[in-house]
Amino acid sequence: MKHFAKVIGTCALAAALCIAGVGCGEPEDPNAPVTIDFWYGYTGAVDTANKALVDEFNETVGKEKNITVVATSQPSVIDTANQLSTAIQGVTQPDVVALDTVYLYRFLEDGVLESLDGFAEADKDTYDLDDFYEGFMEDAYYDGELYSVPFLKSTPVLYVNKDLLTQAGLTTDDLATWDGFFDACSTVHTETGLLGTISFTWMWLYNSIMLSYGTSVFNDEMTKTNIASDASKNIINNYLDLKEEGAASLIVMENHLTTIVGGFTQKKMGMFFYSTGGLTTIQSYAQKAGIELAVCPMPKGTQQATVSGGANLVVPVGNSNREKSAAWEFIKFMTSKENTIELSTATGYLPTRESATSDAVMTEFYSKNPAFKVAADQLPYAKGKSVPDGEASNSVLNALDAIWVSGADVDTTLADAAKKVEDLLK
């Protein structure tokens, strides 16, 4: 970790002395040994895969360029964002961070992330940004400049207990549209007495449904919300209908994963939405529970669409040029075609590069593991989140909680939430 001075007066004095030829040190040696810190918020299979690649970097590129990377896993992506905020305000900070894209805006607006334009331009002949999926790159730019690189990327998918679906007289083909999904949840409950689904107030999922109906929670300019639109009310009321008939349980986000995984592995429900990044873990749970697991794409509304999410790699400002250059070398390594394939096959996160998806290694993996291919097939329809982290998003989630969980009036609650959100966005 590196010292991060924010004392502007000291910096100005140092600059003045340097201009005068007083107190200037030697220029940084671009080949001097350097140790950089890499933070991410993943455990389990992702932590294992990350550390294996860090070891590989240290033994190859790192050894050649005098760079050593130290990997540190935070408990979650939220913890990573919060720890980074604390680190930037203090005296030490990491050099490379896998930052979930929903938290990017917080740091970009504060101006504490390094523009990567210069590095990318210098390496444009050997490091192809155009090879990344367009939907992933939407979150990589801010005010026309590159500030992050897609890393561990995901889309939501539908996890299904195929046995329960069969008992209800249904197949996965019945889940191709949102109308089909809602009808299937009702049918599962009618035929088996069990829940069709458990869902929680999750902005990522809600925005994905909105996108499939040609709209979104927030407009592209982040000045308005569509939470009180007819499309939004239709989605909300469909879930409320399921809840009223006993076909769905709608819960708050806190401890949601324990409730959902518990309900699924105990065979109390038919299906649920979650990130493809959890595929490896959910497959393991299903196997132990004796469940035949099916993985389905996001249903279609008026169009095929889904959100993309996951983490991008960023470089905080404030470290030395040598450290930032070393961070860029590490980013290039971790996001190469070969290593995005390595991470994808090990974890369930998506290959970030089009060339990786079509690579022989990846296509062979998909032929043996078709569940992993479901999310990859959605990538042409994937869009960046376009959801700001903070009070505006929380206001939307609070409104959904009030309606879905507490039974508040739909029209009044959404109208009040829309006004509050747009005041906040202004």
The CATH class of the largest domain turns out to be Alpha Beta
* Strand percent estimate: 15-25%
The SS-based structural class is alpha/beta
The unreliable regions are: 1-26
Report how far the terminal alpha carbons are from each other: 37 Å
State the major sheet.
Answer: 5 strands, mixed
Please tell me how large the radius of gyration is. Answer: 23 Å
The mean pLDDT is 90
Helix content: 40-55%
CATH topology name of the largest domain = D-Maltodextrin-Binding Protein, domain 2
Number of separate domains: 2
The CATH homologous superfamily of the largest domain is named Periplasmic binding protein-like II
By DSSP (H or I, 4+ residues per run), the number of helices equals: 20
Q: Please tell me what the overall shape is.
A: globular
